[in-house]
Structures are given as C-alpha cells and as structure tokens.
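Annual report, structural modelling task.

Input specification for the zinc ion complex:
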Amino acid sequence: MLKFTLENCIACNKKDWFKLFTINNWDIIQCNICGYARLNEFPEINTRQDFYSKSSIDNRALIKKRGPAKKLAAVVRHYLRKISGRDKGTYFRGRLDFYLSKGDKVLDIGCGNGSVLSEIRTKYDCVGVEVSRHMAMHVEKELNIKTFCGNFQEVDFGDIKFDAVMMVSLLEHLPDPFESLKKCYELLNKDGVILLKTVNHQGVNRRLFGDQWTGYRPPDHMVYFGKNNLEKMMENIGYRNIIKSGGLFNDSFYCEAIK
Ligand SMILES: [Zn+2]
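The model returned the following structure:
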C-alpha cells in the first residue's frame, strides 16, 4: 500500500508528488514542480544506525551490487574524472582558500575518517562532526582535531560559530535537509561560507540511467536534489551568492553560498 507524503515540498513548498521508482522495495517520489525527490518514507533512526555500524557492511555490499548499466556508468565516470582532473579534496581546499584567511574556523559535518580535514588542519582551526564513533575517535586521536560524535542535528555547539561549514556527500543521507542547512546557517559567522557536495538528481547521468543510476541508494540516500531546487531551498533559508558547479556527466554537484 503506497502512502504518498502529505507534506509540502521542502524546495518549492508545493504539494504535487508522483511515484518515480521503487528500488529495493523503497518508493522514491518526486516533486512534479521542481524535481526534488525523496524516499516516500524515511527509515527508522535505529535502522539507519545499523546501516552505519560495522555489522551491516555485508548488507551494504549487497546493496551496492552492480548491474551492467551501473558498471558502465562507473567506467565512464572514472575516465571523465581523469580528464577533468578534479577531485573533492581539490574543490574544497580551493574554495576554502578563496574565502578564508589563515586561522579561520572550519566545521566539517560528516567528516568520516578526516580525509579532507587532514589536508587543511595546519591552515585552519578545524572541527569535525561524525556519526560513527569509531571514525570520530580516529579523527580526534590520530589527527588531533576536535570532533563531535553524533547526529549533526543533535550536537550542541554552544557558542561556537564558524567561518566555513562543509558537507561532503552528506546531504543525501539526511532526513531533514532543510533543518540541517538552516542549522548550518545559524552556525556561520556573518559572511561565512557553506560548501557542499551532493548527488545530482537533475544531471544527465540520472536521466540516462533511470532507476539504474548509481545515486539511488535507498535507504542510505534519502533525499535527491538537483542544482536548481537546492538553490531555491537555500535561498529560502537566507543564503546568498549561491554558486553551483560540477561537470555535465558527474553524478554529484558542488554548491557554495554565503550567509
Ligand atoms: Zn518541489
């Protein structure tokens, strides 16, 4: 029995949903007006925590099992990345250097094993947030970077404000993207910058590969933005000078904006 959401779209505020696909028994619905897509129902928090725990690694491997279309997409992606010569580290380092001065305060939400933070920690005053206790401890102990462990929405930062907030491939994992980006806005100093990378639901690859598109990973990926509807939602929060970038055939895109 399909229960379409009764909520308004968080990007365009209209209520006009249709079912796009059912993937691994998860219904994905899309806004008819702006193209924002999401799971019809989000998984329980307990299920999500299981998903990120070590015991579910086998499940993840199963979910990621690739069909022929996905294998082809992976090969194409590999070569396009080689041609463009740009990886996520290059983008985030470059844009931070553009906006910030030495010693400015940077927050990386969903910092994982600290791969991006480790490259910038000597230049900026870095703080991480990571839901996995194992990885949070690694970043704090091995990289010596202050790291909050837990869900971003539940972390109390006290009076700390930041000059830059990063979300590297995190937004698609969040059931509350509007509230999360609003919290980022509140955590930023005036003229602070947000930098993020998320899957591109309005990109060529998604249109080309349909339900075989590599970005569809329910229930791990819960929400699916494109460049235009993400910009609209960020404008509604108050962000300005929004810049979206990312190659035509990339599965993800970058977005940066000022408070
Ligand atoms: Zn919409």
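Residues 68-84 form the longest helix (17 residues).
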